[in-house]
Amino acid sequence: MNERRVLTLLRKEGSLSRAEIARRLSLTRSGVTYLVDALLKQNLVNEATANAAAAPSRELGRPGVALTLNPTGHYFLGVEIGVAVVRLALVDMALEPVRTETVALPRSPDPQSAIKLIKKFLSDCQADKRFKGRVRAIGVTVPGLVRSDGFVLHLPILGWRNVNFIALAEQGFDIPISIENNANAAAFGEVYCNPKQSHDLILFLKLGNGCGGAAIINGQLLRGTSGVATEFGHMRVSDHGPQCHCGQTGCLETHVNLAALARYLNEAGLTVGNDPAEVALAMSAGDPAVKAAVQKFETYLAAGMVNLCNIFNPSDIVLGGSLRPILALCLENLRAAVARGIVPGMQSPSINLSRISQYECAIGAAAISHHAQFDTTSLSLASAATRPKV
Ligand SMILES: [Zn+2]
User: Fold this and answer.
1) What is the distance in A from the centroid of ligand 1 to the CA of 84?
2) Ligand 1 mean position, distance from CA 211 (Å)
3) This prediction's pTM
4) N or C terminus of the chain with fewer C-beta within 10 Å?
């Protein structure tokens, strides 16, 4: 546990001297020396000169030597199984992606073909001498309901229902594998990979083919009774619109996903595709019809965000997903609309784009594995579905 405490501190602070670690963790200097020796042997930390270190200490011995996580000591594989696509990211000990790949899949792939892809990527990584024998765990995300024990309850967007993914996958790998809802993983990654990010109450919205949601409250993912809470996309925001895959109409998701954007553009008689980057380009160029179409999207999204603010009073709302190029152009309007719409007297949250990139779910899943193996942070995922191999 003390080794993990040292690793957690180094992940958050970057680099520290042994003396500073002893002070921060209330450990004796000899205790820290013992711990650090063990961590050096396991390739988990590196020694660096203090001039390269951000916070060297002059208090106790060996002031010239600071410690950092050893980025190349161990690696974690994150996998996002999405709609017609699988994104894979290998991240190092410092949570930096070192190898990424996007592979097209049929729109409704069976779980076995996704597992086959993961095996192929892992074996390619293991063939590289930098990573051979150093990949410690795999984290997988899917766009739908995942029970706390890893059972995939409902994944209509991929055509999966009642799939015991962990049991299927476990036979093929000799390292731990876990599965998580995609928005939960992205939210976790957003906070875990950016230790300076406050996490009093963060809401995450992942906008693309669907509208996933996650909430981190006082450092913990809000899971609900069976682990499937924060399905923000199914919040009712209108009396009309296409039927949602949940069976209802008027769900936020059906008004703010890629299909909705295509609908608004069609209604405006536009032939521009619904590729977010293309739409963002047309919008930046000042095309009034595109602007009007995006404004519809923005209005619904703001309505959903106002509801979420009134319920949660969040400190931060983070927006991610494949609609990011458009979201970047909507940020100012969304901030203003939320400030206007929330209960008077309530503080407006910070509203920003996720910082991680298109691999946010894969990197988030890898971060969950990193956390399960090495970290003591209070960002709890206690009920996440992880079944380590002995
Ligand atoms: Zn719905």
Assistant:
1) 21
2) 9
3) 0.83
4) C
